[in-house]
Amino acid sequence: MTSDSQTLDTDAVAAYLTAHLPGFEGPLTAEKFQTGQSNPTFLLRTPASNYVLRRKPPGVLLKSAHAVDREYRVQKALAGTDVPVARMHLLCEDDNVIGSAFYVMDHVPGRNFDDPRMDGADNATRAAVIDDMNRVLAALHDVDVDAVGLSDYGPPGNYYERQIGRWSKQYRASETAVIPEMDRLIDALAEAMPEDDGQRGLVHGDYRIDNMIFDAKEPLCRAVLDWELSTIGHPYADLAAVIMQWRMPAGTEGRGLAGIDRAALGLPSDEQFVARYCERRGLPEIGHFGFYLAFCFFRMGAIVQGVLKRGLDGNASNPERALKLGEYVPTFAKGGLKALEEG
């Protein structure tokens, strides 16, 4: 049994899969993906098939964080819908196997864009990839949660009130220094919160292009990944999360489009992306978008603060990157304040 988030006890995994996964045959090798900061993820190779194992990190964790059981449940429920997900194989909640809970799913081959500029792609491909990202988001928010068995996947009530309360507590629990902008943003969000409009559906919680696998040749999404933050909530949070990411600095750390001539790259403006989403879902113009955008900046700032805390504590999935990401917490806070000011 291992307690290291960077390695995996392949003998223990192979023994478990031999006993519980029909058709599994070793030998088994494992390679850790260096992307992602929450739940350590490994590519499992066998002579016949490749799988992906995603586990909780070891160590003391924040309450309700790293919910691999929820990730497994939501992706299994979405099989057969218009939302592309990897095929789920099994969930192991016995910490004695490898030291923490984990699940195993199919490995989905294809392309992963960690930068929305999609270096190396032509303009037509960029436009088509972003439009398919938009299509999948609209499909996600049109999922009938009762029909797929997810009606109890999130508590009732005002989603934003609940989320701001949750992430404020998570932020305080992982706070390593006073960031005045985050303190102001938390207070400002509570004051600016619009009335609940009754919209309630499945939300991903971290919808970004780097959490998607696209076909190796066609600009089509084959799987949406990283469902840890998914719940029943308000769909505009996912939509605003896309816009929030694009407003971050360009490059390997910010992975945004700030200052980029989007038209020259074939990429849509914020307004065009939102309008296409509304068209697909038959929605009118969205009011209070500044609040939704500010909420996304706040939540991401709180998430990144948690990543920083784990990096300092020595149990981050990628410690070096965790410390670099932690530098962005004030940037997210300032972005949130600016979004509220702009309305």
Automatic annotation (TrEMBL):
Signal peptide: none
Key words of the record: Transferase
Domain named Aminoglycoside phosphotransferase: residues: 30-253
Pfam family, one: APH
Listed InterPro entries: ACAD10-like, ACAD10_11_N, Aminoglycoside_PTrfase, Kinase-like_dom_sf
GO molecular function term, any single one: transferase activity
SUPFAM superfamilies membership: Protein kinase-like (PK-like)
Name this protein carries in UniProt: Aminoglycoside phosphotransferase
